[in-house]
Amino acid sequence: MLAFALVVSHSLSAQVKTYELRDFFKNAEKTRFQISPEGDLLSYLAPWNNRMNIHIQKPGEKTATRITSLTDRDISGYFWKNNSSLIYVRDFGGDENFHLFVASTDGKTEKDLTPFKEVRVSIVDDLEDFPNEVLIQMNKDNPEVFDVYRLNITTGDMKQVAKNPGNISGWVTDHTGAIRVAVTTDGVESSLLVREKETDEFKVLMTTDFRESVSPLFYTFDNKQLYAASNVGRDKQAIVRINTSTGKEEELLFEHPEVDVTELNFSRKRKVLTSIGFETDKYEYTFLDKETESMYTKFQEELKGYHIAVTSKNKNEDKFLVRTYSDRSLGAYYMYDKATDKLTKLHEVSPWINENDMCEMQPVSYEARDGKIIHGYLTIPKNVKDQTKLPVVINPHGGPWARDSWGYNPEVQFLANRGYAVFQMNFRGSTGYGRKFWESSFKQWGQSMQNDISDGVKWLVANGIADPRRVAIYGASYGGYATLAGITTTPELYACAVDYVGVSNLFTFMKTIPPYWKPYLEMMYTMVGNPQNPEDSVMMQKFSPVFHVDKIRCPLFIAQGAKDPRVNKDESDQVVEALKKNNIEVQYLVKDNEGHGFRNEENKFEFYGAMETFLGKHLAKKSDESPVRSTPYGK
Asked: Can you give the pTM of this predicted structure?
């Protein structure tokens, strides 16, 4: 638990600069650095015509070559394929139908390798040992399932190498690039399928209920057994080695008593396991290899005060890119040359922000009404004289089967810089805390999941942090649902609310999911509710905010992307229409060129600018004579 003597202070705080909104949400000058396979070139994303495009330069040189020319949307992700080509993916207007492109390092060629309408592509294996080929999966033949293709990036030739019978949700290759593992699902049970050779038929190795997961990570270096993250027979996921003949665990490599462990890293060149990563309040590593541990120790000694992540390395594994970060800084990129043992700074990600002006994100925990411990993060503003009874923005995360993490968050720092405390909680169902905690969220949208959020508000008030008359709630996706649920089930808690691409109607949400979510529909019914089940239908009606807008007593601001494939625009339209019928004013911002959240810089500026004005108006300090709502906070 947090010692509040460290947080709550009546003394004057040091003068802190008020930053422009753009400083928090503008594109970085240079970010997402990567090193070429031969180690002689660096790539990074930098803005051109307000869009993030790939640039290339030699280490130590100041001039760079821009090799992509996107003007409508940022590049979503990219990687080096060979020393003369990079692969990148992008969608169109936020529709999440990603296409795969290749661009040459001289900037002369750029080609869409998957120019198919309403088709989504992703990488199965980058095939590092095959310089001109990649394995991709696409839902070209059936929008609900993904088949695997071997794609030549030079000729554009494509060959289907694995046909999805309709129930395969994932594929895994061995170290030669052969597809050796498939994961199937019927929405209720999941099976792990294996084969000795790519020409063999798959056989079922094990079948589990979806609540138990065996997530294959990669093969052992002899391509005979599998490393996996598994919670079979335990509450928390652990790193194990599985016998691919019997399906039994041969070895438990690592487990943590408090959190799931899902990350295992290795050296491709040296063929050794290097580290295991896991997240408690902050991200941590345990090392399996002395060379890797020694390297990280060097980085931590030279870059004191920051968390460290190795983000890229060349094929020879003698040059590495290192990223620093913290809760108050996006940090910087460094290049480490193993031969010279030298660490060289490449670029500060956001040099216009002084991290000393930013606020600490403090890990906290509190007890929910049923005794469950809820972990989260509290950010207290620096630039206020009295750090008690603050205006607070409650910020539940999306997912909902995801989690908030420690680190620099531009939304949080923006709000704190404006004088608001920000509270993020990993309510039940948040991932990383084990199977029981996750399962406790099933069919609990608007119920115990929402109680965890409400109990967090009460905890802030009871500890003197929050002014009960100046609490706002803001969230995106599921967080948007939690926002709407909060102001319809506990309207007395909130002074205003911001719903960003949030679910409002559990019935229509289930009907409008993307086609490639259909194989998981039975699982969604178990986790959220089945509209065909009379009992579930009553529950879904009761906890769909759109049917209870008459309970809303505070100002509401809604933002939505018109091309959102996950939370259809109709989810927001329904709330706006229902409020208008009840003569309740609502502020509504729609962007036609955005999807599930705004990505284009100018749209982010508009959204956060509108939010700043909205919060400033409705969270202004109330005088003692101001009327108080029926109760200061929920009972």
From this structure: 0.93
